[in-house]
Write a structure and sequence with these properties.
- The chain has helices spanning 2-34, 38-62, 67-92, 99-122, 136-149, 157-174, 197-209, 215-246, and strands at residues 130-132, 179-181.
- It is globular.
- Helices cover 74% and strands 2% of the residues.
- It is built from eight helices and two strands; from the N terminus they run ααααβααβαα.
- With 250 residues, it is mainly α.
- A two-stranded antiparallel sheet has the order 1-2.
- It has one domain (2-185, 194-240): Up-down Bundle (Four Helix Bundle (Hemerythrin (Met), subunit A)), CATH 1.20.120.1760.
- Helix 5 (136-149) crosses helix 8.
């Protein structure tokens, strides 16, 4: 009986350990950025994103989800995917713009926090297949990917303005109403779940060997929301146009 209780406690503790790992990576990324080690900071953001995926998946697979875990995960995400990307981009490029750069970085923190708060409120009622607005982990990974590939920017105000536009655009996508696929309807407990081991293993290999390649899937995911919106808009317009053409003359 005692062993069973210890085992259950260990299972409940497992998702929390991954959340702590997520928080540790976000905090460490901020410290590395303050030292000018932008590539190391970017890799830490990548690892934090993997930790964030694992804690939720493990909690759902083991049936150990709890209100505490949900809130703790959101607080960790605010640090790793809200404060950390803002601090990284400010130290990397936005500091060249003075107060404007500071405001853009703070805008990102506000939007990431609002995105996570809205997710917590809508979690029980929203369609779990989609996120409303860009999720904060891929947004942070996209910014970290750019930073990893271009750790040393030229001392140019034009480049800093371009970086500010990029940060502000992603920040606004966080609080947008674009729909993003959540991948939460994937059943990892089915017979075909082992097929997902390969892409996940490939993701880990990419982070360890060529972290800069993380920018590719992150960018595609960031763009998927506006692309899906435009596609649905064109379908609606084409549908309404065909209905108009099919109406009989009066």
């Amino acid at each position: 009986m005692t062993r069973t209780r210890k085992l259950r406690r260990g299972i409940y503790l497992l998702p929390t350990l991954f959340t702590i790992g997520n928080l540790f990576c976000g905090f460490s990324a901020i410290l590395q950025a303050s030292r000018g080690s932008y590539q190391i900071a970017a890799v830490l953001v990548f690892v934090a994103a993997v930790m964030d995926v694992l804690d939720g998946r493990i909690a759902r697979m083991t049936g150990t989800t709890s209100d505490f875990g949900v809130q703790f995960d959101s607080l960790a995400d605010v640090v790793s995917f809200g404060v950390a990307p803002a601090c990284l981009t400010h130290a990397w490029a936005l500091n060249q713009l003075g107060r404007v750069g500071w405001m853009v970085a703070f805008l990102y923190v506000v939007c990431a926090s609002m995105r996570l708060a809205r997710f917590n409120i809508q979690a029980s009622s929203a369609d779990k297949r989609f996120f409303v607005g860009l999720a904060s982990p891929p947004a942070a990974v996209a910014l970290a990917g750019v930073m990893y590939l271009f750790p040393e920017l030229p001392d140019s105000r034009a480049v800093a303005v371009g970086a500010a536009i990029l940060v502000a655009t992603i920040a606004l996508l966080l609080i947008s109403h674009f729909r993003y696929y959540s991948f939460k309807d994937l059943d990892l407990q089915s017979r075909l779940s082992h097929y997902w081991v390969l892409p996940f293993a490939a993701l880990i290999v990419i982070i360890l060997t060529e972290p800069g390649l993380m920018l590719i899937p992150a960018t595609l995911y960031v763009l998927s929301g506006p692309v899906i919106f435009l596609w649905m808009l064109l379908r609606r317009r084409s549908g309404s146009s065909s209905e108009t053409l099919d109406e009989p003359a009066r």
